[in-house]
Amino acid sequence: MKNKKVAVTGGLGFIGSHLVERLCQDNEVVIVDNETTGSIKNIKHLEFDKISLDLGDITEIDLVNSFEGCDYVFHHAAMASVPASVADPIKCNLINITGTLNVLLAARDCGVRKVVFASSAAVYGDNTNLPLSEKTLLKPVSPYALSKAVGEMYCQLFTDIYKLSTISLRYFNVFGPRQDPNSQYASVIPHFISSILNGERPVIFGDGEQSRDFIYVKHIVEANLRACQSNHTGAYNIATGKKTTINQLVPVINQTLGEDMDPIYDEPRPGDVKHSLADISKSELLNFKPSINFPDELSETVHWFVENQEFKE
């Protein structure tokens, strides 16, 4: 994508900042962010001549002004925490549902060509019918998961009623540089890296044989670009279609750091899903089929944390 004007809500966050990093190379980028979980540190290394920053909440800011002249909107601003959503479902509803509705209305009114909505595999809940396909019944088990499902429905509604092209990307377990290990919704990967860097044994809840479909953040960026330039709408799994157990993570992290830290095994956490795996056949319609090298991607993530230990402060 080149010579476009795009908006990224949540553009100072973990995934959003990686998307901005890629987009600003050849496009004008407007970031909308309230700095609740995102940080200007995430884009400090970028040239700002093609980036403008609208600081504000998507429930309050004039999004029509932010999106004026934009070709595409990538909507990543959200309360992205299951525990926080359980503690305050009204706030989750306001940010994730009303906020998404505000984004869609502004995009419609500004003549945006397409909205890419960051959804989540959380919409599947504890469904054990693996691998999970887009035809799988949604079973949200938290306000966060429910809000993402409603966001998808609003996107489809705006496509059907207002002819605003939208697409929802259901991210599975995303990891990579700039992910906050202190975040309540961070992947287990930054938690493990942070623990070992601090000389602490990483904690594994359960026997460690639970598995996840981990996907590197750079593949998420690629999926966003392909999704916005495609003619497809609806919901798509964005994952690798491969499973990795929690036990497999620690040796790779130890090897990269030159450590030999044995994990501590604790009782399983209530509500934790034992296995998660995506059916990614539908995402091939977007010409998205990531070339996966999980050990190298994990090592690259570890090296970033080593070089940026001040980031966690």
UniProtKB/TrEMBL annotation:
<dbReference type="InterPro" id="IPR001509">
    <property type="entry name" value="Epimerase_deHydtase"/>
</dbReference>
<dbReference type="Pfam" id="PF01370">
    <property type="entry name" value="Epimerase"/>
</dbReference>
<feature type="domain" description="NAD-dependent epimerase/dehydratase">
    <location>
        <begin position="6"/>
        <end position="239"/>
    </location>
</feature>
<protein>
    <submittedName>
        <fullName>GDP-mannose 4,6-dehydratase</fullName>
    </submittedName>
</protein>
<dbReference type="InterPro" id="IPR036291">
    <property type="entry name" value="NAD(P)-bd_dom_sf"/>
</dbReference>
<comment type="similarity">
    <text>Belongs to the NAD(P)-dependent epimerase/dehydratase family.</text>
</comment>
